[in-house]
């Protein structure tokens, strides 16, 4: 039910004012910020001043002082005194930069994900932000795509749980509450499946696969009460998402009951034209408004053509009215009509020192996201007093915040600095620490100082190789066709192995890289992602055993880029490969590479050892699967016990396994716990031939284990 004051506001608005309310521009267009640091293609829009007075929202206008100034100016000129909505890309923290979301997915810690969002919300709110364009929950299977860093990975169940946790963390129970901001889930829908992993490339998945894999996490956001949904750049079944009525009104609003605001991604209304789905701006505006896009971001076809479309009878003004009402209702839910500045606070926003509580939280979130992929010859944990060699472009680098790390007020803690907090500086020797430039600058390798590094470090007790990719080569516009470390980084690792000392390779990346070429040369291998402000401290905590690594991969790591897409929840095919018969030709296989990834979804090691026993499935009115897990080591550790199921045969083919639950156990030395999962029919439902959610009786494999490849399994009939 629309509040009377909102209805009255709408009734008094001219059509042009309504269309301006549905338009979002960057601060540049108010003359506020001449550094047009945009997140998309820039163009002059030649907007008349009286229109600017009625624009509804601001893209990436941040900073308490800026927001207060712009909001004040706006309210002085806005005829109806409707406050501006300030929206920004707070993807993994605002001032305290937190681990990239792909790392947070690997923490498998939902409380941590909620905490992550709460911290980002508090800092963003103080900076005057009302809406964050997060969580990004596009399911991903192709690490060539730079934006895998922004999502929680390849699994619908994990993505859904992480997404709803973040929505809760951002929004709380009441948007008016201090330190809360509205969340905007994106990019609806299927943006994570570009062909070839090439940014903005064609997405073409069947409706069944879209529903089974790509939609669940967006729906989890809607069910968690997300305030806003952003439409994707790509087509969905050959119609751009930003003009796709079946997607936006059919699924999002009618099927799922979403009644919040929808916003087009940057310029994507206009991009219906190059897509070939609209002949001009007028048709683009007509299609997007008809499809259900409320706010047009960084293009002005609503403004330029909306009135004519109504006059020509091509567009029902009621569609514009309902969109304006949703925008006004969001402003009201945030309390902006009472307090248009909400939590903007220059004192907090411009504090000399970052918030100590948030800094500590960032350190813990980082440590829990690191994934230990290999640890042989007791290479880790390090011991204080060891002579430590440290080499590679990320040895002393502070450029480890990760992509989309907006404000960068405080430089990150480097790996060197983190280690030097643990052991005396004279015990640390560095070499070949020159940083890796960005491919955008045409830099594809580091200087070859390998021999110097070998000679300088060969007498150390242990050697750390800090390698990876430049953070600017990840995120939007960061697609790559090659995922190996650069030649000189690989050469460094192999030469360091010649020292005969243990080599610990630490990989800084925003995606799964191709690590097979350096795996044998590494006694230990740590996936460090980009962990944000506290990166070096988080890593040092793990390296010295002050935090026992508990991360589990949220995305498969391929043997080679030629294997992509490789993901755990695949269909079996009609000619499955049987590893018992490796010489058989006519099965699904490569001649030169395994089908399985190098490291699978859910994989990760610990300094503890965990023994699984007593797997049992009890059938009856309710079905339970249980297993006993014992920490057989002398140090407390965290284990993520994972539940998967397989529907063996159905009216449509089903994945060989699907995650349906996980439980993170913290087990003291030699402690044993029994974990039990209830298997409900809801878990077993799927989208049948006609895209309806159904259950079909049949045989099911119930599986529990430590990762998607190491599972106990039992087949049962469920009627
Ligand atoms: C960008 C991104 C989107 C972001 C938006 C606003 O192009 O695709 O994720 O939120 O523009 O910056």
TrEMBL record:
Statement: the UniProt record of this protein carries the keyword Signal: yes
Species whose genome carries this gene: Paenibacillus monticola
Reactions that this protein is recorded to catalyse: Hydrolysis of terminal, non-reducing beta-D-glucosyl residues with release of beta-D-glucose
GO biological process terms on file: glucan catabolic process
EC number annotated for this UniProt entry: 3.2.1.21
Entries under SMART domains matching the protein: Fn3_like
Keywords assigned: Glycosidase, Hydrolase, Signal
Database matches in SUPFAM superfamilies: (Trans)glycosidases, Beta-D-glucan exohydrolase, C-terminal domain
Domain (Fibronectin type III-like) ranges: 639-708
Family: Belongs to the glycosyl hydrolase 3 family.
Pfam families referenced in this protein's UniProt entry, alphabetically: Fn3-like (PF14310), Glyco_hydro_3 (PF00933), Glyco_hydro_3_C (PF01915)
Classification via PANTHER family: LYSOSOMAL BETA GLUCOSIDASE, PERIPLASMIC BETA-GLUCOSIDASE-RELATED
Coiled-coil stretches noted in the UniProt entry, renumbered to this chain: none
Enzyme class (EC, first level): hydrolase
GO molecular function terms listed in the Swiss-Prot or TrEMBL record: beta-glucosidase activity
Name listed for the protein in its UniProt record: beta-glucosidase
Domain of life: Bacteria
InterPro entries linked to this entry: Cellulose_Degrad_GH3, Fn3-like, GH, Glyco_hydro_3_C, Glyco_hydro_3_C_sf, Glyco_hydro_3_N, Glyco_hydro_3_N_sf, Ig-like_fold
């Amino acid at each position: 039910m629309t509040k009377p004051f909102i209805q009255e506001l709408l009734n008094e608005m001219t059509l042009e004012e309504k269309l301006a309310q549905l338009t979002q521009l960057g601060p540049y267009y108010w003359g506020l910020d001449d550094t047009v640091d945009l997140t998309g293609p820039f163009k002059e829009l030649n907007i008349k001043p009286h229109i600017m007075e009625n624009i509804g929202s601001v893209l990436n206008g941040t900073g308490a002082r800026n927001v207060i100034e712009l909001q004040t100016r706006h309210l002085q000129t806005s005829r109806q005194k409707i406050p501006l909505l300030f929206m920004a890309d707070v993807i993994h923290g605002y001032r305290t930069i937190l681990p990239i979301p792909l790392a947070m997915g690997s923490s498998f810690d939902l409380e941590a994900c909620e905490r992550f969002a709460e911290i980002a919300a508090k800092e963003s709110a103080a900076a005057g932000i009302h809406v964050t364009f997060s969580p990004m929950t596009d399911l991903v299977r192709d690490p060539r795509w730079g934006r895998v860093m922004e999502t929680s990975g390849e699994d619908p169940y994990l993505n859904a749980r992480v997404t709803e946790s973040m929505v809760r963390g951002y929004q709380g129970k009441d948007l008016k509450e201090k330190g809360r901001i509205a969340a905007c889930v994106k990019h609806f829908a299927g943006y994570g499946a570009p062909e070839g992993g090439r940014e903005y490339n064609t997405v073409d998945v069947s409706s069944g696969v879209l529903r089974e894999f790509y939609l669940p996490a967006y729906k989890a956001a809607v069910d968690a009460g997300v305030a806003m949904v952003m439409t994707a750049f790509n087509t969905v079944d050959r119609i751009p998402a930003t003009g796709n009525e079946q997607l936006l009104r059919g699924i999002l609003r009618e099927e799922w009951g979403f009644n919040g605001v929808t916003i087009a991604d940057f310029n994507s209304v206009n991009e219906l034209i190059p897509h070939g789905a609209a002949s001009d701006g007028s048709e683009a505006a007509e299609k997007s408004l008809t499809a259900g896009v409320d706010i047009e971001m960084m293009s002005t076809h609503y403004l330029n053509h909306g009135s004519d479309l109504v006059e020509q009878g091509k567009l029902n003004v009621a569609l514009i009215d309902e969109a304006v009402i949703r925008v006004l209702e969001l402003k009201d839910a945030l309390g902006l009509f009472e307090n248009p500045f909400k939590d903007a606070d220059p004192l907090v926003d411009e504090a000399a020192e970052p918030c100590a509580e948030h800094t500590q939280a960032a350190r813990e979130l980082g440590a829990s996201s690191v994934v230990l992929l290999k640890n042989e010859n007791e290479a880790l944990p390090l011991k204080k007093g060891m002579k430590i060699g440290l080499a590679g472009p990320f040895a002393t680098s502070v450029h480890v915040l990760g992509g989309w790390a907006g404000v960068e007020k405080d430089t990150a803690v480097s790996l060197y600095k983190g280690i030097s907090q643990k052991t005396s500086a004279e015990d640390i020797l560095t070499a070949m620490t020159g940083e890796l430039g960005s491919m955008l600058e045409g830099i594809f390798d580091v200087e070859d100082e390998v021999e110097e590094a070998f000679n300088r470090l060969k007498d150390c007790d242990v050697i750390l190789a800090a390698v990876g990719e430049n953070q600017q080569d990840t995120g939007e516009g960061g697609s790559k066709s090659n995922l190996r470390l650069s030649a000189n980084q690989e050469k460094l690792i192999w030469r360091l192995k010649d020292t005969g000392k243990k080599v610990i390779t630490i990989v800084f990346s925003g995606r799964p890289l191709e690590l097979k070429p350096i795996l044998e040369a590494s006694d230990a291998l740590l996936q460090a992602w980009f962990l944000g402000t506290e990166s070096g401290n988080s890593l040092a905590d793990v390296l010295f055993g002050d935090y026992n690594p508990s991360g589990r991969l949220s995305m498969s790591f391929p043997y080679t880029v030629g294997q992509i897409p490789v993901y755990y929840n695949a269909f079996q095919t009609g000619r499955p490969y049987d590893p018992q018969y490796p010489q058989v030709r006519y099965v699904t296989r490569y001649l030169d590479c395994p089908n399985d990834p190098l490291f699978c979804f859910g994989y990760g090691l610990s300094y503890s050892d965990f023994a699984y026993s007593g797997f049992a499935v009890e059938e009856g009115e309710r079905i339970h699967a249980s297993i006993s897990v014992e920490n057989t080591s002398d140090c407390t550790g965290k284990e993520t016990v994972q539940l998967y199921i397989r529907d063996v045969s159905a009216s449509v083919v089903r994945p060989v396994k699907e995650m349906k639950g996980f439980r993170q156990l913290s087990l003291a030395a030699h402690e044993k716990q029994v974990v039990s999962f209830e298997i409900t029919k809801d878990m077993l439902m799927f989208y049948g031939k006609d895209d309806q959610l159904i259950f079909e009786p049949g045989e099911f494999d119930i599986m529990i284990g430590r990762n998607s490849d190491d599972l106990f399994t039992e087949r049962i009939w469920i009627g």
